[in-house]
Amino acid sequence: MKQSKMFIPTEKEVPSDAQVQSHILMLRAGFIRQLAGGIFAYLPLADRVINKIEAIIRQEMDKIDANEMLMPEMIPAELWKSSGRFYTYGPQMYQLKDRQARDFIMAPTHEETFTRIFADEIKSYKKLPLIVYQIQQKFRDELRPKNGLLRGREFIMKDAYSFSADQAGLDQAYDAMEAAYKTIFKRVGLNYREIIADAGDMGGKASAEFQAIADTGEDVIAYSDQGNYAANIEMAETFFESKKPSEAAGELHLVDTPNTRTVTDDAQLLQVSEHKIAKMIVFKADEQFVAVLLPGDDEVNEIKVKNFLNADSLVEANEKDVFQTLGAHFGSLGPIGADSKLRILVDRTISNEANWFVGANQDGKHYANFNLDRDLTNFEIGSFRTAKEGDLAPDGKGKLVFTKGIEIGHIFKLGTFYTSKMGGQIQNDQGKLTDMIMGSYGIGVSRLLSAISEQSNDDKGFIWPKAVAPFDVHVIIMNTKDATQQALSAQIETEIQAAGFEVLVDDRKERPGVKFADSDLIGIPIRVVVGRDAPDKLVEVKARSEETSEKISVNDLVLYLKNKFSELK
């Protein structure tokens, strides 16, 4: 491919609207252009990388007998109404009407669509298990699209679904997809972690995320510095061993805490650590008021609370409603007496210590020496605090370390959430009707493009992993007016293409400095410079990831490139 014939609009300056490195470089290197907030055009170089990512995905899907399909991007809203997600998904969903005023959505994902197809077509366990997938555009009206392809309104996604007759079939499909995803992410050259994750609004319970490690990531990953444990911060657990409090229970009594609204206020007034103030936070879970009691120096983990309650929604209660229920304002709320008015969840760490300070449900009053086993009757214990960096990992092996990551894949065991609602029943091997059991598995393809580029760059530009690089070799002609250089370049292009390499030839009438800068910016794995040594059939070869170059005879070039390419990541 001649570079003069390829649309690669490189830029010298850093775009003012780009903040993260992947976004900056993809704009500067001519990979993408923005048409609107969160909506991008993929230019030829980006398209080549995406095609290679998709090819790797298809190869690994073929290995686990997954069937590629293609569903419509615009789907009837009725499908999502039948699952209930039309009402819970929220404003991220694009909605529209046709000329007959029928409701449609632009699909953010396709669980309902695949479920409808299989509910209509599969009636017997003998047709299962099956795994199907597609690679397609998805649409989500992000409130604040940012960081280029990392959070967009239109993006490319590989979404897959398994349908099984029993739990064993789901487990087998889930394990196969998990292994395939690990291979995919390894092949595209990513440094990633598989972590325990929350299923969110997908409807299932068991799930795992794949996170590419990156400082610009929006997700926080907690992992053990000595063991294999890793989880999204929303799901991260810590080591806990139930034990009796080390000090004797003191006498419960009221203390004055005038004009305090926060744990810090209470701790300063009472001259105790913030940890010893057991704060109570009230939520509205669906239509029920629920209070969570935890140490004052901890943060409540709303995902854990929501999952414990199996609630569809969880929001912090407003002060007016709390006052009407408990008779006190924020800053004076506590569990004593509240257990008869609302459901109380107690973080398990409270049970291991004695003599807490808690709000008395009287403005400006607290109780001293609250002891859980003595002073509260109706409560439920669980893990409701957000893990902190330095906490012991849940297996007791090492401490938790935090890092940031970019979510690149997510796998779910959906169970019967969709099939039970949408008529997805089959006759099992005993002749009885039963719901098909589903799994859902996604990879953000366009996000992968961004995640790889976040990890594979330097101050000059991209350093693409060889498996997904837009080209394998970049041949640069130093002087396009030199007939010898032109002839040798043509010979090299023919020979290395015949050896299986994809070649981009910079035949532009540009200064050498411009060509070298663009070459570094684009980031093709190996550069071959045809210059003043062309009469001697010598070229200069340099790997993009290395600082030094070598002079190589054209007669030895193909073998040299094969050996060098095999060494690269």
UniProtKB/TrEMBL annotation:
Specify the domain of life of the species encoding this protein.
Bacteria
Give start and end of each Aminoacyl-transfer RNA synthetases class-II family profile domain: 48-465
The record ties this protein, via SUPFAM superfamilies, to: Class II aaRS ABD-related, Class II aaRS and biotin synthetases, YbaK/ProRS associated domain
Q: E.C. number, please?
A: 6.1.1.15
Q: Name one GO molecular function term.
A: proline-tRNA ligase activity
- Which Pfam family, just one, is annotated for this protein? tRNA_edit
Q: Does the keyword NAD apply?
A: no
GO BP = prolyl-tRNA aminoacylation
Q: Gene3D superfamilies annotated for this entry?
A: Anticodon-binding domain, Bira Bifunctional Protein, Domain 2
The reply on keyword ATP-binding is: yes
Q: Could you list the residue ranges that cross the membrane?
A: none
Reactions it catalyzes: tRNA(Pro) + L-proline + ATP = L-prolyl-tRNA(Pro) + AMP + diphosphate
Enzyme class, UniProt record, top EC level: ligase
The listed locations are:
Cytoplasm
Give the record's keywords alphabetically.
Aminoacyl-tRNA synthetase, ATP-binding, Cytoplasm, Ligase, Nucleotide-binding, Protein biosynthesis
Q: Could you tell me which PROSITE patterns the record lists for this protein?
A: AA_TRNA_LIGASE_II
Q: What NCBIfam families does its record include?
A: PRK09194.1, proS_fam_II
Task: Read off the domain note.
Answer: Consists of three domains: the N-terminal catalytic domain, the editing domain and the C-terminal anticodon-binding domain.
Q: Which family does it belong to?
A: Belongs to the class-II aminoacyl-tRNA synthetase family. ProS type 1 subfamily.
**PANTHER family named among the record's database cross-references:** MITOCHONDRIAL RIBOSOME PROTEIN L39/PROLYL-TRNA LIGASE FAMILY MEMBER, PROLINE--TRNA LIGASE
Q: How does it assemble?
A: Homodimer.
Which protein, by its recorded name, is this? Proline--tRNA ligase
Organism, per UniProt?
Oenococcus kitaharae DSM 17330
